[in-house]
Amino acid sequence: MGKTVAEKIFASHIIDNPSGDINVIRLDAVFCHEITTPGAINDLVNRGKDRVFDPSKIKAVIDHVTPAKDSKTALQGKILRNWARRHKIEDFFDIGRNGVCHAIFPEKGFVRPGYTIIMGDSHTCTHGAFGAFAAGVGTTDLEVGILKGVCAFHYPVTIKINITGKLMPGVYAKDVILSIISMLGVNGATNRVIEFAGPVIDLMSMEARMTICNMAVEAGATCGICSPDMTTVEYLWEFIQDEFGSKEKALDKYSQFAADPDAEYDRIIDHDVSKLEPQMTFGYKPDLVKNVQEMEGTKIDQVYIGSCTNGRIEDLRVVAEIMKGNLISDSVRCIISPATPQVYQKAMEEGLLKIFMDAGVCLTNPTCGACLGMSNGVLAEGEVCASTTNRNFNGRMGKGGMVHLMSPATAAASAIAGKIQIPETKPVPEEYNEKF
Amino acid sequence: MKNFNGKVLFLDRADINTDEIIPAKYLTEISREALEPYLLEDLELDGFNQGMDLANKSVIITKDNFGCGSSREHAPWALDANGINLVIAENFARIFKQNMFNCGMLAVEFSSEIIGKIFRLFAGRSTDLETDMKRMIITIKSDEHQEEFPFSISDFDLALVEAGGWLSYADSNY
Ligand code: SF4
Predict the structure, then answer these.
(1) In a domain, A135, yes or no
(2) How many Cα atoms occupy the beta-carbon half-sphere of A386 within 13 Å?
(3) How many domains does the structure of chain A reveal?
(4) Sign of CA dihedral A263, A267, A272, A276
(5) Which of A32, A416, A419, A435 stands 20 to 30 A from A117 (CA)?
(6) β-strands A192-197, A157-164: how paired?
(7) Which of B65, B69, B170 sits opposite A150 (nearest CB)?
(8) Along the 436 residues of chain A, how does pLDDT read in single tens digits?
């Protein structure tokens, strides 16, 4: 009988089966950021167990509130920084080199097909885009991961979503995943892995696949996964060329983690996206989704473009194409946070930053920023934000604020209109179309 | 092992998320105790009064998908800091549930019929709850009514509760 991607990964990583369908698996990487890791570090210190299982498999970044906004966030950064130094964790990204965790770690080549990864962050599911099993965990799981390099999971039961058809212009990965969350509901995939497959995924860049997998947790999923393919190999090539010598060899090795055609799924959902229109959320849950068209004209106060969902270079290119030669409406303010220094740098080289600044955008350093309502664009009571992030819970971007989730294209169009606006589609020019 | 008995707080709503349980702005607190005043500060629930309703409560009974949203273990910590070690719901978000057991706390699932019945019989009254971990029975009582509800958790989750959490368990096993 065939196996799903997650089953194949588990097969080579299980070290114990303490009861029922609980499996303790060996971890290939443990990712850390400054919000959830200090609690784990302090607890390990208090228990007299201030050790790490393997410093080369631990990657850490200060990304949520950076540079620090007050003494408390400064202390969180300091605890992580000192710990990374103390344990000789070489892949630690401090201020100036830091970016949003789920954007910077893949960009550095830390995520490979077949890997098992945990992080004290619910959007760790993003890394499943590479054909890895990557799951968000709490601080205690993280602590055990740091100390022992293991984590316990239920055996991965998988829902397959077969995405077919052809996307209309102006419709992006974000619209696809919003439509899927709306279909599944906020706990439609709880304790399940979602495998995203089909011709639409096959044609997507790694960045778009990351946008899709990033929001799997908004349907409750443990991980969102895509089978590794040549697109995955191309993205990773600069990091793996010495190991493999040729792309075909890399593909050969990674293909062992692709799902078998006769794999068994909990359910298979066919999702034809040919008629899908731009999507956005309208309430305090990510499954409350409507066509942007129905919401056109809705008042907004702020536009936020960034985050681990949509703060990558492809997103900024789409935004720049729409903003080029236009001004942000004076009834709104628009904040753009490129997700990583590399994204920032590319945006500079490609002239995108100039377009943003000419349009009147507030450009911030790479950080989570407003996404979690701790810094760089917190909303006032009663304010509304059009946002490319992944969560619209009540209070998420500031107490009494409302967040509408949407694609970068819709957010950019809305910034110019000063209200919710369906994006007029402009193709991204050829020169941007280098393959990732 | 922690204590799973005491007065019940009823939260009659589904999908209560971790931002409502403990808002992100308090994630800068490093000590668990410091979270105590902020539990459920942003809860969207008509008639809920954080100060009055939380006083002396040791158990929460609620509906579907409790603890969805972020992975923050601050959510169970904030409960623990308020002396609440047991949450009963129709079901939980995966990470929240795992976090509860990882902290040696208890997350118990009952069917929507049973949760509905408990709400009908007890919500709005002063209600006490006792947990018998040996017999795996939860007894709920008010002035007018008393009823036993058998429950089950996996052997692994039970082992975590008995060990006082995943760290102690993992440390002695791996
Ligand atoms: S960008 Fe937002 S969702 Fe992503 S890791 Fe940062 S806070 Fe979390």
Answers:
(1) yes
(2) 32
(3) 2
(4) negative
(5) A435
(6) parallel
(7) B170
(8) 899 999 999 999 999 999 889 999 999 999 999 999 999 999 999 999 999 999 999 999 999 999 999 999 999 999 999 999 999 999 999 999 999 999 999 999 999 999 999 999 999 999 999 999 999 999 999 999 999 999 999 999 999 999 999 999 999 999 999 999 999 999 999 999 999 999 999 999 999 999 999 999 999 999 999 999 999 999 999 999 999 999 999 999 999 999 999 999 999 999 999 999 999 999 999 999 999 999 999 999 999 999 999 999 999 999 999 999 999 999 999 999 999 999 999 999 999 999 999 999 999 999 999 999 999 999 999 999 999 999 999 889 999 999 999 999 999 999 999 999 999 865 666 666 544 3
pLDDT in tens, B22-64: 998 898 887 889 999 999 999 999 999 999 999 999 999 999 9
- The distance of A399 to chain B (nearest Cα, Å) reads 8
**Which of A59, A100, A104 is the pocket-test mutation for ligand 1 (most atoms within 8 Å of CB)?**
A100
Of the residues A113, A132, A153, which one is the last residue of a structural domain? A153
How many A-B residue pairs are in contact by the CB < 8 A criterion?
Answer: 143
Using alpha carbons, select from A54, A204, A36, A182 the residue that is nearest to residue A130: A204
CA distances from A144 to A1, A66, B48, B78 (A): 34, 26, 37, 21
Residues A424 and A285 in one domain: yes
Yes or no: say if A2 and A264 are a contact pair by the CB < 8 Å rule.
yes
Domain limits for position A412: 280-432
The predicted model scores a pTM of 0.93
DSSP string, A296-360: TT-B-SEEEEEHHHH-SHHHHHHHHHHHTT----TTSEEEEE-SSHHHHHHHHHTTHHHHHHHHT
CATH number at residue A19: 3.30.499.10
Of B19, B155, B173, the CB nearest to A20: B155
Ligand 1: which atom is nearest the Cα of residue A311? 1
Residue B118 tokens read as 């408990």
Closest CA to B79 of B11, B127, B32: B32
Establish if A237 belongs to a structural domain.
no
User: Is residue A58 in a domain?
Assistant: yes
Q: How many A from CA of A91 to the centre of ligand 1?
A: 20
Which CATH number fits the domain B6-173, given the four candidates 3.20.19.10, 3.40.710.10, 3.40.630.30, 1.10.287.3510?
A: 3.20.19.10
In a domain, A197, yes or no: no
User: Would you call B98 and A137 a contact, using CB atoms and an 8 Å cutoff?
Assistant: yes
Domain-ending residue, one of A118, A153, A188: A153
Residues in B lying within 8 Å of A, measured between beta carbons: 15, 17, 19-20, 23-25, 27-30, 32, 42, 44, 64-65, 68-74, 76, 91, 93-96, 98-99, 102-103, 154-156, 159, 165-167, 170-171, 173-174
